[in-house]
């Protein structure tokens, strides 16, 4: 019995040794298991040069904690010629009391050997992020480094890598986030830096840094919403009219909000900030964890609403939109609604108290489509005067309006080109004093011939009107 036990133990030991030898665990030193990956053989000279610099400076590799560029060795094409002519290496000099962090840049020569060309020194406990953007407008990428001083405090610096050496373009302290983007559309990118007031006495600010005269200076600033705590996302995008914008989303009491900033006349503006309320009330919402995104891939960032007014004392938008969709489908399209009569009755019911919001919502919405709306109610059941005024103005705005546009004739009696939404928008303003932006005018098909056409106009969320366009030949 004992022999069988020892034979079993011996067999298990042999199998264990064999399995360990096959996986290499018995023969791998702990230093090797935690060693940084070695560059491919083609870069052996670069690897050797990096090691020499590290030995000379008494340095070790530094970590980059955030962003898309987190490798300790990064091969770069800074001039955009398709060749990776530069290698950036991120180090920490353990013996340095001041500016222990290093960004060493090695340039590849004609002999394919890399040589140390630039050294950028920085303070801090680690490197927060690194990016490469053209902020000077010379077609060459510049170096932008966020040095982490503490958990919430960073120093943002930008450097131009010139033939004469490194030129520091800017350096500023911040505690939230930053974004590099071309807001003023001049071909060079600017930097928007967000600060949160930690004292309780100041204001939350977004600063706009632009390049001029060899340096980047803060040319303007815009207030961020009060009451935010933590800008967790900054993304570039466009407004509906194509204006470049920065969307800065923050945690906010009870949810999140987004401050939307644009540049006009060379200055940064927060276009969503309600100055009386002190925050971007129009973009505040419950925190669903869903970030802003370009849902329909048109270059404009959308935000799906998380709060919808199902019903209030004034309006019942969901009920009215459902009714309108049914009417549109019944008559075969929104262009067929003009002139159709609809009667809305409003009176007392013994079963339950019928809300005033339903008739008010119906007359306000249906009149936008040029329908002939009649509200019937007994004495004492009048609707709110301001709602009645809105319905009257809607009925007058597009009802019976014909926009006349003259165009040149091409071959076969067709137009020379097509009638654009901008032309319709201009004609509405000039002929009838009605302001509807071109991006709100929707043409099912381009107008390329003479005649009369019904064109949709988006007047609000899920709401459209009809513009009658008469195209005649330009003599």
Shape: elongated
Q: Give the mean pLDDT.
A: 82
Helix content: 10-25%
Strand content: 35-45%
Q: Count of helices? A: 7
C-alpha Rg (nearest Å): 33 Å
Describe the overall structure:
- The termini are far apart.
- The chain has seven helices and 25 strands.
- Helix 4 crosses helix 5 and helix 5 (357-366) packs parallel to helix 6.
- Strands 1, 2, 3, 4 and 5 form a five-stranded antiparallel β-sheet that branches. A four-stranded antiparallel β-sheet has the order 6-7-8-9, with no helix packed on it.
- The protein has 475 residues and is an alpha+beta fold.
Short note summarizing the structure:
The chain is α+β, with helices and mostly antiparallel strands and 475 residues long. It is built from seven helices and 25 strands. Helix 4 packs across helix 5 (357-366) and helix 5 runs parallel beside helix 6.
